[in-house]
Amino acid sequence: MSAINTNVEHFEYDNKIVRNFALASIIFAIVGLLVGVLIATQLFMPSANITQYFTFGRIRALHTNAVIFAFVGNAIFAGVYYSLQRLCKARLFSDLLSKIHFWGWQLIILSAAITLPLGMSTSKEYAELEWPIDIAIALIWVVFGINMFGTILKRRERHLYVAIWFYIATFVTIALLHIINSLAIPVSWTKSYSIYAGVQDALVQWWYGHNAVAFFLTTPFLGLMYYYLPKMANRPVYSYKLSILHFWSLIFLYIWAGPHHLLYTSLPDWAQSLGTVFSIMLIAPSWGGMINGLLTLRGAWDSVREDPRLKMMVVGITAYGMATFEGPMLSLKNINAIAHYTDWIPAHVHVGALGWNGFLSFAIMYYMIPKIYGNEMFSKKLMNAHFWLGTLGILFWAVPMYIAGFTQGMMWKEFTAEGNLKYGSFLETTLQIIPMYMMRAFGGLLYLSGALIGAYNIFKTMLVGKLIANEAAQAPALEKVFVAQGSDTYWHRWLERKPMPLLVGALVVVAIGSMIELMPTLMVKSNVPTIASVMPYTPLELEGRDLYIREGCVSCHSQMIRPFRSETERYGEYSKAGEFVYDHPFLWGSKRTGPDLHREGGKYPDSWHYHHMREPSSMSPGSIMPAYDWLLSQKLNIADTKNKLKAMKTLGVPYDDYAIAHGEEDLKIQAKGIADNLAKEGIKVAPDKEIIALIAYLQRIGTDIKKGQQ
């Protein structure tokens, strides 16, 4: 035992940075949810696709980035900075770094808001931003890490509370994920190509994509739950030992689960199986965290009835439990075969996003804002109204999408007694679920209404009170404490007092699964068998593919035919790993709002594609696809064509020097051929228009296999 420390130090907490991140979070919550309601409306009202810059394909990524990184990201930083100072009994390490972090993050969000509607996208889910912005994200993340660890190192509290473990794991893992997934060869300031191709790119992307959910939308919120829930309920965390088991098992198992997004695809079977096994195992730590949270409320359920913040926490934690049970279930191949590519998946995602992330973010702000303004929330009734509108919004969003998902999965697979597809036209399924899309938009509107009420309530609270920008605090200086070795948690008690070993331990735990999963697919060639007939894209096809990426076509169309009879009957021969070896990036997609396109090449004449892009309903009556009429008039920009070919050659695509030198010439020859072909059918279009390049790409997709069979 040590002597009582009488060396009390006086310091101040920085509440201004907390206020700034909270304000940004609230503003971007409204923006992100508003864009979400717009894209939900576009799926049953194509006329809502206003201008080429606000089509579903372009602004879906704007919605996901806004809610994940702007709304939720800012809420994380506000919650972390508020709790970290109090858990460490120290002011943040650097006021300057705090300001750089805040303004840097907002500039990144602004750059996303500008570039994504302009079509500057990598197409990789949750990682659509181009390479200069990726570098900025990495730098600002490092600033956040230095500020966090600097605060931890100058703490006056020896013990690192459980919330801080999760903050540390979040920082180190997101850095690893972001850097590895974002590696690319730049073509220009606004264009780059992923260094990975096809199967390898898909594996790396979903290693990142699933763990962006795990380590940006889950682990920091678990840390926030472990701090704010006990504070709100005035109860200690239910089980310290369970929190240890929860933390280490969660971060170890989560990193393996990415391949469950790629079941029945061209990914090697061993990687798919690993993803399934570890996804099933994830139920234990995930529910361990949920149970630890809910049992923290033992003896405080009367408070839950009275306190809207606790209501939000309970619904949020319950939503986390539901989503983390459903995720492993969707990783079972027999369930995945029905659910994947359907609206079941967005329903699953939004239970977690709206319930877990959304409700916890607002509950935390309802707790923090009165504390830093020295008053109470402006209106408890408005908090309750927000809670009920948000809860109803989640139900009206998710339930119709579950119904839509089941409907799609069943209709796509149904055969007649004669052995033919009962619903041969993909559009038949789409028309069946449009009422569900309308209900989803209504659910989103309810949730947005609740958020608007919450924003008004918070702003009024700020106006009534006065920010305590520098909150006075005091605590004894840190002194050395010895831990009894007889304790069964001695090893962890020691680790909790050593932030750098804890960081290294977390990094090692997440790196194990990452290396075992990624390295064989990246290094062992037999994992991706090549096909002799598969050739690189022509310069015109490559430009057309980039237009396909620019317009966000991958948001609605997959390019991966799974080995099911229902899919090969509908689309053609199933997809092979070797077909994608020159695809930088991969475009397998994760949702079919429209049909799969992997065997689209040669399926229709050039004129069909022209009319379909000009007015989709003229070729597919009842289609919910927007018109892309600007492609017919806009001139194809070929200024970077040579640089694109050079970048592809650097990545191993076999373009020789002659092909690169004569790329523009070959492009113009192929474009003239397509324009002449259209002219024969009475369609006059200049060969230098964007539509020509897109038609070239669409007519190429999936045709190399056919050439090899001739």
TrEMBL record:
Lineage, opening ranks: Bacteria, Pseudomonadati, Bacteroidota, Cytophagia, Cytophagales
Cytochrome c domain segment(s): 539-702
Residues binding heme b 1; low-spin: H63, H350
Residues where Cu cation binds: H210, H260, H261
Cofactor note: Binds 2 heme groups per subunit, denoted as high- and low-spin.
NCBIfam families: ccoN, ccoO, PRK14485.1, PRK14487.1
Pfam families (UniProt xref): COX1 (PF00115), FixO (PF02433)
Chief location category: membrane
GO BP field: aerobic respiration; electron transport coupled proton transport; respiratory electron transport chain
Protein species of origin: Arcicella rosea
Chain ranges passing through the membrane: 21-45, 65-84, 96-119, 131-153, 160-187, 207-228, 240-257, 277-297, 309-325, 345-367, 387-405, 437-459, 502-523
Keyword annotations of the record: Cell membrane, Copper, Electron transport, Heme, Iron, Membrane, Metal-binding, Respiratory chain, Translocase, Transmembrane, Transmembrane helix, Transport
GO molecular function: cytochrome-c oxidase activity; heme binding; metal ion binding
Any GO CC annotation of this UniProt entry: plasma membrane
Family: Belongs to the heme-copper respiratory oxidase family.
Binding site for heme b 2; high-spin: H348
Metabolic or biological pathway, per its Swiss-Prot or TrEMBL entry: Energy metabolism; oxidative phosphorylation
EC number from the UniProt entry: 7.1.1.9
Name the UniProt record assigns to this protein: cytochrome-c oxidase
Mode of membrane association: Multi-pass membrane protein
Cofactor: heme; Cu(2+); heme b
Domain spans labelled Cytochrome oxidase subunit I profile: 21-504
